[in-house]
Structure formats: structure tokens, C-alpha cells
Inverse folding.
């Protein structure tokens, strides 16, 4: 392909990062199931440990299969570099480990995925990192929460499971004003539906477990460095702007320029905390990504039809899908994700908590489980499962009240998906 | 040459056709970017001449340091500038005088007047780029660090003649 042509999204989803193997010519990226990689000689080993040369040392820090996945995601998000890790939660832990010092604060959307609410509010407190919550729909609330200790602002592009589409530009403007990086969890949208870098994201995280992998077979996470934040100019991020003891006093922000954040996450966060992704998982997720554009469009098309059908059902109190005309987030969905509003949405049963529990028991095609973004259609009643650790008020705020059922619409024939809901709803 | 965006082929041809780099503003500190670049270029088989008047006569990366471009004991192909954009003009004038083939300014260094002067004298110019990053990107090594190389190829990558974890800039065609 001509070097002067900028490849399109479908091409990048298949090719970015994946040249045929230099030694064997293998066309599909091999699974490099090896903990370690031999050094050419002592000088080569030293240059790798000193970060002077590019190369592989040990699979807790980097692995050639993982590297293809990283470059693929950096390309799809328009970033400068990426780091793949064991899970979306591991990605978040490493991002904040790189940004925060004890006593520091960050501001996060109140309506995040329940697992992130636990991680930020509970686990991070033990590191003396403090989250301040702000309503996703209110950029002024983010502005009001900024203090001199603020180190980042974190949102989801499409919130799980609340059906909220975030006004990324409005909140990124707050982050710019505050001089802190804007972090976007783009899991539900994937870069096929929206590319947060275009709207001011500095760092993008994903759970690869969901639509990117897309087949419900591998847990993984990624951090994408957009290369847009000036770490050296800021002075608030000593991990990047001050000399680093374990690399002989190197200043990572100076040495690695516009991909320094991804490198810092790898050579400090991943090296020291350890949540490496398995090469096999990296391979399976890469295979999933090759068909992301096709799958994601079908997911969205099916979801819109199912949401539309449910909204006319007499046992359904409400449907919250931003892809439906009249939904309060429809205008934001048109603006940020015009190809589709994702495939995860919630609806309310007039029968409340008990009806929700009944429904998940009666479906035959939908699987009752706690994941999203699978080829299979999935169903869950968050109040009795994923969000049961939260109090009533926090549960309601996260869009997971007692009557709420969450669907992740799969790639089956949409008539079969609807027929399954129809028969199950008839019994509740 | 449009200095806002270089074709990959232009950079690849420079890195493949040139054999020696004078690094102006070379630091003796092993953690500085210029030191990294010199180590990397040496590992890739290029000759490297560090240039730094404060270290003239001493050695950096086991190579004798020259006080200036006019004070080197052998000709050089590429003049790599680790100095301010303002300083790049005078250095470029010296690069033309000594018969260098390429003036290369590091990331953050750009001087369009110097570029015009060099190009008028028949030299090729690269600004606001790092030869280590460009080599790693075009040879397919930088992806090992998760960095977006912005290149695609369905041809097998070529291992470097030195073997091991080293890739060549050459391409299967």
C-alpha cells in the first residue's frame, strides 16, 4: 500500500501493527507464548534494560503478541502508543498509579460502570487517592469540583448501564482549563462509534473484554496515549517530569516525548504492579478486532430494533437507549456516535424488582451473565447482581434501580432476539 | 520539501543511504536523549561523531568528541542537531561548508530559514524528528514498545544482518 495514503478504519482494524512474522512469514500474528526473550549479547541486554533500544525482555513488561494488539489499538484511536494489560480495571489502576501521588484527587463521572465506582471510591482510597464525583450531564459540576489537588478528569463516552452519552467536548474543556488530562473510558462505544481524541481526550482506556474482543472469551484492558498532554510543561506529574530513580535518573517525559505516558505506564506501572495480559488473550482479542467494524454496526442495528420493539411493549415502563428518537441523549448520540448508540441499554419493567428476576430466569436465547459486548445477546438485572454492593441511592444514580434490566444485544437474527424477549415477557 | 509532514519513503531513503552522523549538542550523560540516539545509531552500524565544545577531546559513547563541525577528523553524512531552533541556523551553515548531505533537526527543533539554505545548497533536510524514533518506526521495532508506527505492510519484515532482536530498514518488495 502506498505510504502516502492514510488507511481507513476497516483497514487499520485488520492490519495495524501486524506485519508478517520476520522469521517464519506467518501471516496471522503468532502467539508468542514465552515468558522471556534472549539477548543478543550483554550490551544488547544493557541497552534494553536502560530503555536505549526497542526490544523484548520479559512478558510481564512486553510481549510481541501483546505489542501488535497495542499498536492496533493506538492506530484505531488515533493515539501515539498504547499499553495492553490484564483487564480494564488493571488499565485504570496503572493510569492512576502514573498520575497520582498520595493525597491527590481526581474527578470522575458519578454514572460510571459499578466496578469503576468501587475501584475509584474504595480500592483507591487505600492508596490515599481521592475521587470526587460529578454528574456526567453537568460540565459545571466538574468545574466546581476542581481543586489544586486535581490530577485528572475521568468519564465514559457512553455510560454503562445508564444509557448516557457524555458531552465529551464540554467536559474536556473543563480539563483543559484545569490543566489536567482528560481520560475517557471508550469501552461501550469502541473507536468504531466514536474516537474521543477528536473531542479532547488525552488518555483513553478500554475493557477489551467487551466489544473490541467481542466474543466473550478473553479478559483484557488497554491504555491509549493520545500524545496530547504536555507532561513536562505541567509540573504536576513527577512520574513523568522528574528524574526516575530506577532508570538512572532518566526523565521519561523528556526522553519519550509524545508517547511518554504509555511508556511510563509500561516501564513503571506494569513493571511494578504486574497485571500483564496473557499472550493467548492478546491473540484472541486481536482476532476479534479484525471484524470490529462489521460486528459493531450489526450490534447497533439490532439494538435499535430491539429497543424500539420494547418501547411499544405493555409490560415495559420505559426504555433508555440513546439511539431512539425522543431519548434525552439522542442529540448527543447523533453528535458523538452517529453510526449507532452502542448495543447496551436498559429498560424498566412495570413489575419492578421481582419481574426483573423472573425475566432473567425465563429467557432462552439471552444468557444471564455479568458481561457485555459478546456475539451472544446477554441479559442482567443489575440491582440483584452487578450493582448489589452499592446502596439504593448510588444504585439509582448509576441507572441500576430495582426495576432496571440491562441488555447487551448480540449478533443473532434480530427476529430471534425479539421472539425470546417476547416469550419471556409473556410470563412475568 | 514540505517540512510539516515527510513521506516515509523520504526518511527511509535518508536512513538507508547515509552512513555517519555528527551529533551536535551531544551530552555525556547516559540518561539524556542525545546519548540514547548515539547509542542506538551505533548499534545500527552508523558511525557517530559527538560534537560538544565543552567535551572536546574527551570521549562520549567511546567516540572522540569534536569541538565543532569544522573541527572533525573525518567527513560526515548527516548533521543531527540537539540545539535550539535559533542555533540551528549557524550549525546548518557549517554543515553546508563541510559537505554534509543531510541536516537533521531533533524533535522540537525547527528553523525554516536554515532548511531553505540547506536545500538550496543541495542538502536534504529533516526537522522536528528523531532518527532513533524514525528508524524504529520504519524498521518495525518501535511497535515492540506499543508505539503506533503509522505504517502498514503485508510483506515479511527483514531481520538485520546483526541478527537477534534487530530489524532492518530494508523492505521486501
Amino acid at each position: 500500500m502506498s505510504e502516502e495514503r492514510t488507511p481507513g478504519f476497516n483497514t487499520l482494524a485488520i492490519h495495524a501493527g501486524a506485519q508478517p512474522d520476520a522469521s517464519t512469514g506467518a501471516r496471522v500474528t503468532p502467539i508468542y507464548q514465552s515468558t522471556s526473550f534472549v539477548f543478543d549479547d550483554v550490551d544488547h541486554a544493557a541497552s534494553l534494560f536502560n530503555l536505549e533500544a526497542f526490544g523484548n525482555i520479559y512478558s510481564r513488561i512486553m510481549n510481541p503478541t501483546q505489542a501488535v494488539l497495542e499498536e492496533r489499538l493506538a492506530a484505531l484511536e488515533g493515539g501515539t502508543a498504547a499499553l495492553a494489560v490484564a483487564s480494564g480495571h488493571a488499565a485504570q489502576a496503572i493510569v492512576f498509579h502514573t498520575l497520582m501521588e498520595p493525597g491527590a484527587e481526581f474527578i470522575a463521572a458519578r454514572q460510571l460502570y459499578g466496578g469503576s465506582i468501587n475501584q475509584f471510591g474504595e480500592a483507591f482510597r487505600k492508596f490515599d487517592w481521592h475521587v470526587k464525583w460529578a454528574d456526567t450531564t453537568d460540565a459545571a459540576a466538574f468545574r466546581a469540583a476542581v481543586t489544586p489537588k486535581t490530577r485528572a478528569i475521568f468519564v465514559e463516552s457512553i455510560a454503562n448501564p445508564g444509557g448516557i452519552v457524555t458531552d465529551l467536548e464540554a467536559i474536556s474543556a473543563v480539563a483543559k482549563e484545569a490543566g489536567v488530562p482528560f481520560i475517557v473510558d471508550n469501552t461501550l462505544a469502541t473507536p468504531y462509534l466514536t474516537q474521543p481524541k477528536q473531542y479532547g481526550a488525552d488518555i483513553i482506556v478500554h475493557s477489551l473484554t467487551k466489544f473490541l474482543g467481542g466474543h466473550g472469551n478473553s479478559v483484557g484492558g488497554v491504555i491509549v496515549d493520545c500524545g496530547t498532554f504536555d507532561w513536562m510543561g505541567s509540573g504536576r506529574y513527577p512520574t513523568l517530569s522528574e528524574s526516575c530513580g530506577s532508570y538512572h535518573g532518566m526523565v521519561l517525559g523528556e526522553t519519550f516525548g509524545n508517547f511518554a505516558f504509555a511508556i511510563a505506564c509500561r516501564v513503571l506501572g506494569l513493571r511494578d504492579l504486574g497485571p500483564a495480559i496473557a499472550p493467548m488473550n492478546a491473540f484472541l482479542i486481536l482476532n476479534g478486532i479484525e471484524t470490529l467494524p462489521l460486528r459493531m454496526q450489526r450490534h447497533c442495528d439490532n439494538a435499535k430494533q430491539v429497543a424500539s420493539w420494547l418501547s411499544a411493549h405493555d409490560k415495559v415502563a420505559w426504555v433508555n437507549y440513546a439511539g431512539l428518537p425522543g431519548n434525552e441523549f439522542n442529540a448527543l448520540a447523533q453528535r458523538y456516535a452517529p453510526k449507532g448508540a452502542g448495543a447496551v441499554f436498559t429498560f424498566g419493567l412495570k413489575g419492578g424488582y421481582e419481574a426483573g428476576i423472573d425475566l432473567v430466569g425465563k429467557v432462552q436465547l439471552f444468557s444471564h451473565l455479568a458481561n457485555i459486548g459478546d456475539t451472544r445477546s446477554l441479559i442482567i438485572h443489575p440491582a440483584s447482581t452487578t450493582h448489589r454492593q452499592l446502596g439504593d441511592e448510588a444504585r439509582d444514580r448509576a441507572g441500576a434501580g430495582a426495576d432496571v434490566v440491562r441488555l447487551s444485544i448480540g449478533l443473532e437474527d434480530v427476529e430471534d432476539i425479539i421472539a425470546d424477549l417476547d416469550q419471556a415477557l409473556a410470563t412475568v | 520539501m514540505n517540512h510539516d509532514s515527510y513521506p516515509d519513503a523520504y526518511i527511509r531513503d535518508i536512513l538507508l543511504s547515509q552512513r555517519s552522523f555528527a551529533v551536535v549538542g551531544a551530552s555525556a550523560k547516559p540518561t539524556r536523549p542525545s546519548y540514547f540516539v548515539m547509542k542506538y545509531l551505533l548499534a545500527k552500524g552508523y558511525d557517530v561523531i559527538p560534537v560538544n565544545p565543552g567535551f572536546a577531546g574527551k570521549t562520549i559513547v567511546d567516540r572522540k568528541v569534536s569541538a565543532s563541525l569544522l573541527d572533525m577528523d573525518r567527513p560526515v553524512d548527516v548533521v543531527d542537531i540537539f540545539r535550539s531552533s535559533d542555533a540551528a541556523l549557524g550549525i546548518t551553515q557549517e554543515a553546508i561548508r563541510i559537505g554534509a548531505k543531510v541536516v537533521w533537526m531533533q524533535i522540537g527543533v525547527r528553523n525554516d530559514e536554515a532548511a531553505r539554505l540547506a536545500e538550496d545548497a543541495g542538502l536534504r533536510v529533516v526537522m522536528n524528528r528523531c532518527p532513533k524514533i524514525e528508524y524504529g518506526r520504519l524498521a518495525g521495532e518501535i511497535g515492540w514498545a506499543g508505539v503506533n508506527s503509522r505504517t502498514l505492510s503485508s510483506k515479511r519484515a527483514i531481520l538485520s544482518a546483526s541478527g537477534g532482536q534487530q530489524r532492518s530498514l530494508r523492505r521486501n518488495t
Remarks:
- Helices of chain B lie at 8-17, 33-43, 87-97, 112-120, 131-139.
- Chain B has a mean pLDDT of 95.
